[in-house]
Amino acid sequence: MTIKAIAIDMDGTLLNDKKRITKATKTALIEAQKQGVKIILASGRPTPGLSEHAEELAMKNNNGIGVAFNGAQVIDLQTQQILFEEPLQVEVSKAILEHLKKFDVKPMICYKDYMYVNNVYDNQIHLSNGENRNIIEYESRIGHYKLCEVNDLAAFCDFPLYKILAAGDPAYLNQFYKELEQPFEGQVSALFSDPFYFEFTARGITKAKAIKAILPKLGIKKEELMAFGDGQNDQAMVEMAGVGVAMDNANDALKQVADETTLNNNEDGIAYTLQKYLI
């Protein structure tokens, strides 16, 4: 099978637990581009959050593609041209943000250079490993956003959003995610991108939908696509690809739909698989 494009989730897949690309993975992906393979970074992160690692992989010199906000926006990383976008409707965004007030979550929305939150000091979540994390600082830093406080996000939001992010303790989100989604079921897409992130995007938006929309423009068939992922928001992408690969640290549901499972994100799983197909 000829592989012409590789779609790669970032956190938990491309990046190791220290949020870095390992030397072997970087070398393998740069070599793949030298062979003419298109690299697609496909992340729940906002578009600015792709730039650092895209530069590290020399994607801007190789017409790399960025799929951001779980598929709500796709850009050509070299030209910055938007290839696909589908934001939430403003009234739907307002309703979701109003609904989130009933829950112990920290909503975050991004617009232009800013990430807007209710309170920058109400920022701690408790992860499953016992770690406390300043989730607002974490998200704003990886997205390269300035921070701004807004008392009422629902009233403030009069612009299109690609995504609404609700952060919370993993145990709490796992208990209440159905209630978070229920009023908007059938109107939006809602899923976990991490155990501590539950996200809302426009109905039907997935990484798979975004990639399907741009593949004809690239002259690439989905059978010629390889996809790597580890989470719920990667499942449609991995299932759709000609070769779908789950990281060893992926959830069980993703492993069940993947064509194969590779090593984990700390063990150069991407490089290990590419050695079999490309190098």
What are the key terms here?
single chain, 279 residues, alpha/beta, Rossmann fold, Hypothetical Protein, Haloacid Dehalogenase-like Hydrolase, Chain: A, domain 2, 2 domains, eight-stranded mixed sheet, 16 strands, 25% strand
Molecular structure report:
- A hairpin with a 5-residue loop joins strand 8 (124-126) and strand 9 (132-134).
- The chain is an alpha/beta fold and 279 residues long.
- It is built from 10 helices and 16 strands.
- Helix content is 31%, strand content 25%.
- Helix 1 packs parallel to helix 10.
- The model has no long low-confidence stretch (mean pLDDT 96).
- The chain folds into 2 domains: 5-86 and 205-277, Rossmann fold, CATH 3.40.50; 90-202, 2-Layer Sandwich (Hypothetical Protein, Haloacid Dehalogenase-like Hydrolase, Chain: A, domain 2), CATH 3.30.1240.10.
Summarize this, please?
This protein is of the alpha/beta class.
Give the arrangement of secondary structure elements:
Elements: E1 5-8, H1 23-34, E2 38-42, H2 51-56, E3 65-68, E4 73-76, E5 82-85, H3 90-100, E6 106-111, E7 114-117, E8 124-126, E9 132-134, H4 135-143, E10 146-149, H5 153-156, E11 164-167, H6 170-181, E12 188-194, E13 197-202, H7 207-218, E14 225-229, H8 235-240, E15 243-246, H9 252-257, E16 260-261, H10 269-277
Parallel strand pairs: 1-2, 1-14, 2-3, 7-10, 14-15, 15-16
Antiparallel strand pairs: 3-4, 4-5, 6-7, 6-11, 8-9, 11-13, 12-13
